[in-house]
Amino acid sequence: MYQVFYDGTFNGLLTLYDYFDKGLEIETVVNRAIEKNFQPYIFQFEVETDRDIADSVTKKILLIGGEEVLKKIYLASLADSDKNEIIILDYIKLLFTDIELVSNLSIETVIEIEKCIKRVFFERHKMLGFIRFSELYDGTMVSFISPKYNVLSLLGGHFKRRFPDIRWAIFDKKRGMVGYYFRYSFEVSYYESIDELEYSANENKVRDVWKVFFDSIAIKERLSYERQVSKVPLRVREDMLEFGG
Amino acid sequence: MDIVQKVAILSNAAKYDVSCSSSGSKRDSYPNGIGSGALSGICHTWSADGRCVSLLKILMTNYCIYDCKYCHNRKSNDIRRAFLTPKEIADLTIEFYKRNYIEGLFLSSGIIKSPDYTMELFLKTAEILRYKYRYGGYLHMKIIPGASKILVEKIVKLADRVSANLELPSEKSLSIYAPDKSRKEIIKSLDTVLKYNLSNEQNNSTSTQLIIGATEETDREIISQSEVFYKRSLLKRVYYSAYIHVNSDLPALNTEPPLLREHRLYQADFLLRFYKFTSDEIFSKRNNLDELLDPKLRWALDNYHLFPVDINKADYSMLIRVPGIGPKSAKKIIAARKFGYLGIEHLKKMGVQLKKSEYFMILNGKKIRNSVGDLVEREIMKFTKANSPIFKILGAD
Questions:
Q1: In chain B, how many domains are there?
Q2: What is the average pLDDT value for chain A, to the nearest integer?
Q3: Residues B21 and B94 in one domain
């Protein structure tokens, strides 16, 4: 039984599937992109992401399950904080055994996959609201987030429709990823470090107005911090201006 | 006065408007513009009172020529006043919007000079946003009752939602506490909106707000009034706002804000809109809603002779009347019935909530529970835990 490491990418996961399919016995999976602390273990195995292997698994999924199933697997893989790798490996195995199995909602793995997808979309929806952009001196809008799940690739469409003529970027601090939009195209890539940002002349003023607005909109007779915490969990507040982020 | 101070005054003055919904708009972005609607609505943050913040909710001004007794901004109150120009409001909206602080603007105002004068400034704001900035985000504007038809129509054309507050639940109360306002004018302006929508195939939603607990109307009067408005399509949404002591001289019936009553009214309102109840049914045995039990459960207990319902036979309209079963579950049940007889395991798997509903259903020809006694006891216990100050202090468990 091995402790398996991979880089947290979708291709990495599909490469891992190939080893799994060939009989690699897995104890736990460690996603290097988000897990910095893990218990060392005697038997370790490092999966080197291999584009060709991943492509061949992708093709096989497409061939047997079609686009819908591939999309499901991709979406479920985004729920990366939930240790979802084994479930996904099992799910692909089910698919390759018999396509009927992946639509059978009495199988635990199939239910788990649906749940993963639901949670991913829930996180995406929250992020659509919680993202805060700042304006740089050249008009670019930048935002920093640390979402629970890897939803960056799902945010592009919404903001593309909303800000078609603005240049903007969303940084996922937790995974070192950045989604960058310019001239009608949105691309996700990785970043190492960021230079000191130079904000626009207006930026601080607008932030101040927002904070004042946020404080004065609450009705003092009806304060309910419990309700506020349940809606805006503490984990997202570090990236939100009005909570001191 | 600096913009920060103005916003502090004018958003503080706007906070008593409950509506902050941004849903229902699927407006596409303008070419070379900014902004789009999101059908589902998006909350961008939650304020310290636990309310969703979706819109820049602000008054254009809190100067007002009226002297309504319930209003913070009435002319006889000695408060700091401010005014934002249409350009200032439009700029602020765009700056907030492109930082993703908000889904759009909800503009209301005190009345300066005349309803028409105030509405003209609103219209100017909407025009700057839509035409100059090519703004496609959400726009909710107040209609000032008494403004001329042509102005109302122009605003309706540019906004996603318009609203006119009825303020108090009856004409009598309004004439006592807001002598400057006329209920007829308010309804007339809603009617203008409806007619404009019909003849222009537009679908602007309309809403209103009522203050609850300050005057003596019963829940039955309040809900049956909403029912009439929904039926006539004059309103899409009625908001109920528990009375808060803003001014000292409005005689409140309750000293504490009747938050629970407000909650129950919203639940009853849901029964009207999504469960096709009539107000006569909800209030068949009472004039005020039960505080302890939610109105749907209360109705089911009042009409226990209609239960239990056979889950495998009942039609949709009866299924959604079972406490614990909503439109979603009812649809699932009907879809699943085509494939065979449903048992309790099927219901569980489909995610149908059985906690309440099992007391009201028949499966395989058998009742699951014989008496609703435990359910009522449990619900009352739950209520006590959630609402009793002692339980709150001791931490209930």
A1: 2
A2: 92
A3: yes
